[in-house]
Design brief:
The protein has three domains: 99 residues, Probable tRNA modification gtpase trme, domain 1 (Gyrase A, domain 2, 2-Layer Sandwich); 123 residues, tRNA modification GTPase MnmE domain 2 (Four Helix Bundle (Hemerythrin (Met), subunit A)); 181 residues, Rossmann fold (3-Layer(aba) Sandwich). The longest helix is centred in the middle third of the chain and has 26 residues. The chain starts with a helix and ends in a 7-residue tail after the last helix. 50% of the residues lie in helices and 16% in strands. The chain is of the alpha/beta class and 501 residues long.
């Protein structure tokens, strides 16, 4: 069938392109230190490529015939001087059953800087070997079909994970949780494209069922619905990967900098009794309950000030709100308690009026998660404190006297907010972790909607032109997983990998 020929030719073109790149990469054998730099108990040096076995025998001995995936304790020698370098474990991984898909080996040697340098120098003397560039081992695994691009990026995230929740999410992605979702849509779109090509070529010969177009449209609408549901995740995966950007705002002298120092357990910001001490944005990243948080201490907000520097700080604070995932709105507990007592108003009403006092445009906070925090509770009487504790949707704290009970209660609520914002990573419902994925999925929906709007069975426009929209939608999915190669995308993906990975 003509449709099968077209798809097959496309696949052959991709395979030829990928194969040519793979051949260029595989012409040489690479080596590098794969474990961390610096003094340590054991360091791992990795080799991958067609001359790996030759390099192994050059360092260990020409008579050595390694057994796959067995660890041998061997003496390592310099191939030129024949001097012993170290004694360590040697492992042999013949391709394609290796991380890169090529012949690979590992030398596990003592982690002194001298041993590492001598081992790398010895490998550099073996003909056909060269040092690996950043991310080159993983890039070879990608071109060898061992990993798709989402798994590669999951592996990069796993390397850089700093919290438990980040580790879980990255681990799920690195073993294919997202890949399976996108590959399912890709295969279904390929099938839809094949059916449409068949309908274009053979509909007049009545070899194709009459309802093929109706079924095609139904399937595309189902795919659109699934992608939209996937996109409607409140950016949970991206927040977990990059950190929850948390802006600390409020009027001057309500204790924003003191609050930041208390949460970070160190003197991050300068604290004085002078209003307007904080001028610029002060950021600090921390781990709370396994969730990464990027705190941003901002200048005190007020409507009028004659200080040009403070005014610039206020403008920067407002800009910070636009990029914030969570806003912690600090207020003086005495003011909050007095306001609620005299006006009999609700907490939400007070928060709304308080934001107006800070000269904040309501549109800046649309869709933002805001939490009101009453600070300076140490200045309240026992009666006032009891009254404040009965107010819903308010967290209370004293940065000057952070008692264990108050801190435990506050941190519990704070971690619950982070859990709601980031969600729980799961294999059944993997989250979007990169803006690149979101952009390509949105474009995919755009192309599918254009196709459905342009092409209807009762209109019969130029089907061949409309079919291109379907192929464009397929390419959007393939750009996520790397089935459609793009040097720009690959450069971005691999630039953050360390040498030896």
């Amino acid at each position: 069938m003509n449709c099968i020929h077209k798809i097959t030719n496309t696949c052959r073109y991709f395979h030829r392109y990928a194969s040519s790149i793979s051949r260029n990469i595989a012409d040489c054998t690479i080596y590098s230190l794969s474990s961390g730099h610096g003094k340590c108990g054991v360091s791992v040096i990795r080799v991958s490529g067609p001359r790996t076995k030759h390099a192994l025998q050059a360092v260990v001995g020409s008579s050595y015939e390694p057994k796959a995936r067995y660890a041998y304790l061997k003496s390592l020698y310099h191939p030129e001087t024949k001097e012993i370098i170290d004694k360590g474990l040697v492992l042999w991984f013949p391709g394609p059953a290796s991380f890169t898909g090529e012949d690979s080996c590992e030398f596990q040697v003592h982690g002194s800087l001298a041993v590492i340098a001598a081992t790398l120098d010895a490998l550099g003397k073996v003909p056909g070997l060269r040092p690996a560039s950043a991310g080159e081992f993983t890039k070879r695994a990608f071109y060898g079909g061992k990993l798709d691009l989402t798994e590669v990026e999951g592996l990069a995230d796993l390397i850089h994970a700093e919290t438990e929740a980040q580790r879980k999410q990255a681990m799920l992605q690195s073993v294919g949780a997202l890949s399976r979702v996108y590959d399912n849509w890709r295969r279904r779109l390929i099938r839809c494209a094949a059916h449409l090509e068949a309908y274009i070529d053979f509909a007049e010969e009545e070899n194709i069922e009459d309802d093929v177009v109706i079924q095609l449209n139904k399937e595309l609408r189902r795919i659109i619905s699934e992608i939209r549901k996937h996109l409607n995740d409140q950016r949970q995966g991206e927040m977990l990967r990059n950190g929850v950007r948390t802006a600390i705002i409020g009027a001057p002298n309500v204790g924003k900098s003191s609050f930041l120092n208390m949460m970070c357990q160190r003197e991050v910001a300068i604290v004085t009794s002078i209003a307007g001490t904080t001028r610029d944005i002060i950021e600090s990243t921390h781990n709370f309950g396994g969730y990464p948080v990027v705190f941003a201490d901002t200048a005190g907000l007020r409507k009028q000030t004659q200080d040009i520097v403070e005014l610039e700080g206020i403008n920067r604070a407002k800009e910070c709100l636009l990029n914030a995932d969570l806003i912690l709105l600090l207020t003086d507990a005495r003011e909050l308690c007095a306001n609620i007592t005299t006006s009999n108003g609700t907490c939400d009403e007070y928060q709304s009026s308080y934001l107006q006092q800070l000269d904040l445009d309501a549109s800046m906070l649309t869709g933002k998660r805001i939490k009101l925090i009453a600070n300076k509770t140490d200045l309240l009487s026992t009666t006032e404190l009891q009254k404040l504790m009965q107010v819903e949707n308010v967290l209370h704290i004293s940065c000057k006297q952070p008692t264990a009970i108050h801190m435990e209660t506050f941190l519990k609520h704070f971690e619950e907010m982070l859990s709601e914002l980031c969600g729980q990573p799961s294999a059944e419902n993997p989250r979007i972790t990169h803006t690149r994925y979101r952009q390509q999925l949105e474009r995919c929906i755009e192309h599918l909607n254009i196709f459905l709007d342009e092409y209807a069975p009762d209109i019969f426009p130029d089907i061949a032109i409309s079919a291109q929209k379907l192929r464009n939608a397929l390419k959007c999915i393939e750009r996520i997983t790397g089935h459609v190669s793009s040097d720009d995308i690959l450069d971005v993906v691999f630039k953050d990998f360390c040498i030896g990975k």
